[in-house]
């Protein structure tokens, strides 16, 4: 996997096979992820600012799982880092991690769509 790859190609291939090439289904998966991200990410960011360690751990765990489910392995690993930071009540560097996650989220839809358009 290239250093700057947003997605795990194997996971995307698996999703494509599950969807049987149905772009509506794949778009629904993407939309569901984006909605969950948009609903929970601001809450995570606020929890980090307030040093609400337990909430950071919970939200990061939730978003980690969601990220893995759409093949966003690098993003999921960043959420894992935040989850562990919350668990250990040690959020130094969280701002930088959150900024990287935000940059990933901005790339998500374009790269997701581009990937599946190449397969159809």
From TrEMBL:
Domain HPt stretches: 22-120
Modification Phosphohistidine, positions: 61
Coiled coil stretches, renumbered: none
PROSITE patterns membership: HPT
Gene3D superfamilies: HPT domain
Pfam family, one: Hpt
Keyword vocabulary terms for this entry: Phosphoprotein
Name the record gives this protein: Hpt domain-containing protein
């Amino acid at each position: 996997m290239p250093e700057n790859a947003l997605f795990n190609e194997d996971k995307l291939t698996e999703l494509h096979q599950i969807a049987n090439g149905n772009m509506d289904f794949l778009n629904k998966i993407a939309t569901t992820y984006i909605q969950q991200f948009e609903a929970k990410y601001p809450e995570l960011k606020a929890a980090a600012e307030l040093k609400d360690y337990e909430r950071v751990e919970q939200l990061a765990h939730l978003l980690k799982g969601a990220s893995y489910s759409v093949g966003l392995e690098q993003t999921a690993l960043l959420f894992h880092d935040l989850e562990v930071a919350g668990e250990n009540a040690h959020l130094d560097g969280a701002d930088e991690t959150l900024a990287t996650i935000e940059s990933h989220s901005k790339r998500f839809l374009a790269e997701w769509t581009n990937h599946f358009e190449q397969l159809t």
